[in-house]
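TL;DR need structure tokens for one chain.
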Amino acid sequence: MSLSWLWKKFRGEDKVQHDEDKTNQVKEDKKNHHHKEDKKPKTRRHSFVGSSVGVHTRPGRSYSSATNGTNNSNSHNNRNSVPIPTPQTHQTRHKQQKTPTGSPATVVSGSVGSVGGGGGAVVVVEGMVKDEEKKEEEDGGMVLVGLFDYEARTENELSFKKNEYLKVLKQTNSDWWLVKSMITSLTGHVPLSFLAKLKSIEAEPWYFGNMKRGECERHLLHTLNDHGSFLVRDSESRKNEYSLSVRDMDKVTHYRIRPQDQGGVFITRRNPFPSLHALVAFYSVEDKGLCTRLNKPCVRLDTPDTPGLSYNTCDVWEIPSEQIHLVRQLGSGQFGEVWEGLWNRTVPVAVKTLRPGRMNPQEFLAEAKVLKNLRHAKLIQLYAVSTQKTPIYIITELMKNGSLLDYLRGKGRGLPLAEQIYVGQQVASGMEYLEEQKFIHRDLAARNVLVGDNHTVKVADFGLSRLVQEEEYEAHEGAKFPIKWTAPEALTHNRFTTKSDVWSFGVLLMEITTGGATPYPGLTNAEVVEHLERGYRMPQPPSCPPKLYNLMLQCWAKTSDRRPSFYHLHYFLDDFFTIDESDYREVVT
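>> reply
TL;DR here they are.
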């Protein structure tokens, strides 16, 4: 197979000849009437001796290649020919499963492999995906594909594996759909956050959606990824454009993917492609001006959150306390205790209890009402409440590494600057969402941020939060504030805004850079108030870069209107290490 033929294939220039051949074939069939066209495409049988198997998920274009020792009669004998990888391949395995009638059946399933090969032969099993697509068209059903493994939590849910096909039976709500497995024929509800529509770009292992550049570089530079690992993400600044990000040894190089007026995409106008899939497949064969050939999709570091505790509780917030098993106490607060627990003896949760007589139960439940209406990846998710018995429970997602304050002082001691910035960027992202929703936190501090795996953090403790339509909240007389984290106008006038949260965020950044040290060391609360009135600000820590300290000073501007928004803070921290906003490479031709 020549490179010129491949180039025509990608540009669609072979389509005319293909259409002519197809028309002639149809005429011949009508004339002879010797054979009827099959209802389903036939599946080619293969010998899998000494090779790994890739399942091509895109119809109408199949390629195969073989390595030494692979018995493949369709492989090319010319060693100079270029083996073409499919845009998405799967490492597959065979296993015996029972059909509905009880007889054994061979099923092919597996997990996403690398694009561009990796030593093993790539054998395309033709017809399998075509069969599913044709069946979908015939019965009008939608087919989803698993992006991650999921284990059912209740009898109404369905477990599935990564890359498993699921047929949609009912779009129950925005978070959970009723589906049928196309492997086991079992039915149940599944969380949409773990799935994507078959044939969609979201189903590709290399597509990461609206991921920011800083987060993208953190993923690609992780030890799980190697030279040539890559991902495609939405452009942050240009609508209908994408960015290709590639790991080049110990750095990440970014390329803009632009649309063509007549359809298709390109990185350089000399090499246009009919689709993103074609672009990725082509640059997986050769670099053609990129910093390196695309090797394999970036490894995803995080599993998505399940929407709610389960399908059964997605619209039911009150659950019996008997369903909660307390495992160990994690800490205590102003209103009660915090425990690690299990729901249904299987699902890890955090349980916040109300200490009797310390707070009105209605006020405690108001916290739950606030939490349940907030849905963001960087905010702790409320699962359910239990109010029928004392103590009252609030059940939320569990973050295994506890509070950020304890983490900075213990397991996360000596956090590198890049990880410090990443933590701050995540908090700013969650607070940006609260800003959009006109919510005021009022107690933003390291003690109220929780830590999970891979330095993932989420904002927690909305016990003092209020929904404020006028964007301002006036505290009642006698309310107690965390003095060292509270903005001066809130201390003196009892008035809180999103800008007072920005002040607290600046103090939080100081906590992060000092390893969890108490703000204003050596000063009492009264002395802090007095110093702030005179214009005092905490000095720059020795390990804090000027760029970050200047951001803190902006957060501590005396006039609240001069403080930055969380939108600005989020993007500033995400681009903290970016030298030039236009730091995108052009293809070398």
